[in-house]
């Protein structure tokens, strides 16, 4: 539906924020300058954790963003920065939401009993 929206509308930050509350996958339609907007990114991944795959690599290093994504969908861990795949808090939150997320955790954390249980 949003692919049919006039290009100038997709330049509007408020429009994108409202849309992101309904569909986190809107991020790739946003202009580059808004793909760096923390509020927009957080709204997208909070609504749809899998939207983390559309987040700029530098923002995938942001623990708050990744925590919001894995809280929404544990499997979003797949798209997290490698460092955060080795962060106990992030991995535990992801695994609590989706046990299969353990597959994307660092090798070190896959061996931690508290996380595996």
Q: In words, what does this structure look like?
A:
- The protein has helices spanning 13-20, 32-35, 38-47, 63-72, 88-97, 107-110, 113-116.
- It has 117 residues and is mostly helical.
- Helix 1 packs parallel to helix 3 (38-47).
- It is elongated.
- The model has no long low-confidence stretch (mean pLDDT 93).
Key features of this structure:
single chain, 117 residues, mainly alpha
Short précis:
The protein is 43% helix and 0% strand.
Oligomer: single chain
The topology string of helices and strands comes to HHHHHHH
Report the end-to-end length measured between terminal Cα atoms.
Answer: 42 Å
Strand proportion, as a percent range, falls in under 5%
Note poorly predicted spans: none
Return the average pLDDT rounded to an integer. 93
Structural class: mainly alpha
**Rg measurement, Å:** 15 Å
Shape: elongated
Count of discrete alpha- or pi-helical segments spanning 4 or more residues: 7
DSSP strand tally: 0
Give a short account of the largest sheet.
none
Helical content stands at 40-55%
Draw up the topology in text.
Blueprint: H1 13-20, H2 32-35, H3 38-47, H4 63-72, H5 88-97, H6 107-110, H7 113-116
């Amino acid at each position: 539906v949003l692919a049919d929206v006039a290009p100038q509308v997709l330049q509007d930050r408020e429009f994108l924020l409202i849309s992101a509350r309904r569909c986190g996958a809107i991020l790739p339609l946003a202009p580059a300058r808004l793909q760096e907007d923390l509020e927009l990114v957080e709204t997208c991944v909070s609504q749809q954790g899998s939207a983390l795959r559309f987040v700029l690599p530098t923002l995938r290093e942001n623990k708050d963003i990744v925590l919001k994504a894995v809280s929404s969908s544990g499997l979003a861990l797949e798209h997290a920065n490698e460092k955060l795949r080795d962060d106990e808090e992030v991995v535990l939150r992801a695994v609590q939401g989706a046990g299969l997320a353990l597959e994307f955790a660092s090798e070190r954390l896959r061996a931690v009993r508290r996380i595996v249980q």
